[in-house]
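Please predict the structure of the following assembly.
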Amino acid sequence: MNETLTSCPVCGGNSFVTERTCTDFVATGQEFSLQRCTHCTLLFTNPRPDSRHISPYYQTDNYISHTSSKKGAIYFLYDIVRLISQSNKLKKINERLKNKTSLLDVGCGLGYFLNTAKKDGWKVEGLDVSEEARTHVKQHFGIDVHKEEAIKGFPDASFEAITLWHVLEHFHNLQEWVIDMGRVLKPGGLMFVAVPNSESYDANHYQSFWDGYDVPRHLYHFNHKSIEVLFSKNGLTVVDRLPMIYDSYYISWRSEIHKKSLLGFLKAVIIGQISNWKARKSRNYSSVLYIIKHADK
Ligand SMILES: [Zn+2]
């Protein structure tokens, strides 16, 4: 069943304009509207499948984030880039947090990042909605991953680092997650939240074909302002905006596939490069890694 939001999931405002229609290119071919809150500028999928009816939209071989199968050269390349990007992610954390104590990866998927952090000396825990993913992480890496609701059971100030790699945009109960994560984040700890940026050059270039919209799995299509409003109203503050450099190429490549382009891979490399280059001043990278801390600690 679809649900229609009548108040903005970030600021609670109730004035929206419909901005565009996007297609679910991955699973169903259905179309979904994106509406923008006139107050905080959040763009969000509305109406959207409710939390009990979203899982069929993830039932597809094409949803690469949660698959480990290797098909062809481009998927091999994807695996290589994934390895490099795991260590880049960890580097950004280790540069800012010197005590490698506890790290929570929310929506850890198949656990590649968790395993990278564990090998580096972090005490890691993971949360994931998928039982298949939880089992995979346990079997391959010996790391315990809990169901997402387990966050409710963690004591206050449990984690030095909390990471969300392209996860926040999937949560139905967005505010509740931000409150729970703020509660379990230690004073002086940091959250690392990577999300697609709907104000990036590649988003503007690909319009409704932009893979970052990924409706209806992506419920929110954040920009700098809506992210800042979301966290600041929950006592948290954004202290840095970093690039996810490889995402511009990957998202552009997927967008070219949606467009059924000739020479799409080549075009994606060019658009991805321009996107990274244009974002150097605006910080409007294809995906942005927001670094977030307690506002008062
Ligand atoms: Zn709003």
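The first strand starts at residue 2 and ends at 3. The pocket of zinc ion is lined by residues 8, 10-11, 13, 37, 39-40, 42 (CB under 6 Å).
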